[in-house]
Task: inverse folding
């Protein structure tokens, strides 16, 4: 579709400019129209690396490849110094940087680095509770028993490590965490909790909650998006039909609640008025996740048309109403992403993960470039 090509060309040009703007630093979220940069110490820094690799695969331009390779060296240094890796987002960091390099170039050093990163994620497994701890050190009184739905997107790092080593514990931990997430984060009406708490000693379920959603019982749209894509990826690796069913359920819930312009607000339960914040990144993640989900559905699946049509509507809504096409000074690809509305942190700004998933969805539709969550067959 010509619309996708034009959006991709805009992303390529913007990324070329951003390579010069950002230098050796990494974009996170924006403030007053400028990306806040860091020295590779945020959970989001893999998304910039992923954007560079996607641009290189799509265009073949060595400028993107050189910049992407430099980011992998930065991630090698980060792992060596263990700089701010006391969280579960290791998959976001290393799947889109070193694993991407392995997938594209077959670089053995990149493969080894990615396996080391998988071991860092494994260190967050809490055997007593049977889950991967999201944030903070083991035994932390606030977060020691907490899982969050985002972690489903980090599990592919462990599945991939199992495929490359044959060590069953990688897959066992990923499956156990996916099962626990399905049981406790997904509600009976197909909505989702952002987080859930367990007793650290016994693993007994305590309660659902939120960190960035409207209320503990509401449905944060980005959390629902993580679930759609994350369960689809767990299905790809395990072929457990329950994961596929769960991804579909979450996706249908999301699409049935699209607003008039097809790009969601930041929470499905928040009151809608002229000041209500959007989250374009939630729609971008969902579009990319449904593209993955569709690859696992039969042509005769009764939900296929709903899902494919909703994905197309979401992506067209982003391109037509939220892309920065025609804004030469813009640094991001999408307007109106939200990091933390409740916390007042970049509630209506560029967010680098939104840019990544938007571009991933576009290049997959246009050229079949699948992203870096699994090996290409």
Result:
């Amino acid at each position: 579709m010509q619309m996708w090509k034009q959006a991709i060309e805009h992303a390529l040009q913007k990324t070329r400019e951003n390579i010069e703007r950002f230098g050796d630093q990494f974009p996170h979220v924006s403030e007053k129209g400028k990306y806040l940069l860091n020295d590779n110490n945020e959970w989001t820094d893999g998304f910039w690396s992923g954007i560079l690799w996607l641009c290189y695969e799509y265009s073949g331009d060595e400028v993107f490849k050189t910049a992407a390779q430099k980011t992998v060296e930065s991630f090698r240094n980060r792992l060596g110094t263990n700089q701010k890796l006391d969280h579960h987002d290791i998959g976001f960091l290393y799947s889109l940087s070193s694993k991407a390099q392995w997938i594209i170039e077959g670089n053995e050093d990149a493969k080894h680095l990615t396996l080391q990163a998988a071991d860092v994620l494994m260190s967050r497994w809490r055997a007593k509770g049977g889950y991967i701890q999201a944030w903070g050190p083991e035994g932390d009184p606030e977060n020691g028993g907490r899982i969050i739905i985002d972690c489903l997107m980090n599990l592919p790092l462990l599945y991939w490590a199992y495929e490359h080593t044959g060590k069953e514990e990688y897959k066992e931990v990923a499956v156990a965490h996916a099962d626990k997430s399905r049981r406790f984060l997904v509600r009976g009406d197909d909505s989702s909790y952002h987080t859930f708490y367990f007793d650290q000693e016994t693993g007994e379920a305590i309660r659902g909650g939120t960190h960035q959603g409207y209320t503990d019982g509401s449905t944060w749209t980005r959390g629902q998006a993580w679930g759609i894509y994350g369960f689809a990826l767990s299905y790809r690796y395990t072929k457990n039909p329950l994961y596929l069913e769960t991804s579909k359920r979450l996706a249908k819930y999301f699409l049935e609640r699209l607003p008039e312009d097809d790009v969601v607000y930041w929470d499905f339960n928040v009151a809608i008025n002229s000041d209500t914040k959007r989250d374009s990144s939630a729609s971008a993640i969902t579009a990319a996740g449904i593209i993955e989900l569709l690859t696992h559905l039969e042509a005769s699946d009764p939900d296929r048309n709903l899902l494919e049509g909703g994905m197309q509507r979401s992506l067209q809504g982003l391109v037509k109403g939220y892309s920065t096409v025609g804004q030469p000074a813009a640094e991001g690809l999408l307007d109106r992403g939200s990091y933390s509305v409740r916390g007042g942190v970049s509630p209506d700004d560029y967010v680098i993960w939104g840019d990544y998933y938007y571009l991933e969805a576009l290049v997959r539709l246009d050229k079949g470039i699948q992203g870096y969550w699994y090996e290409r067959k």
The chain has one domain: 2-367. The CA atoms of residues 28 and 42 lie 7 Å apart.
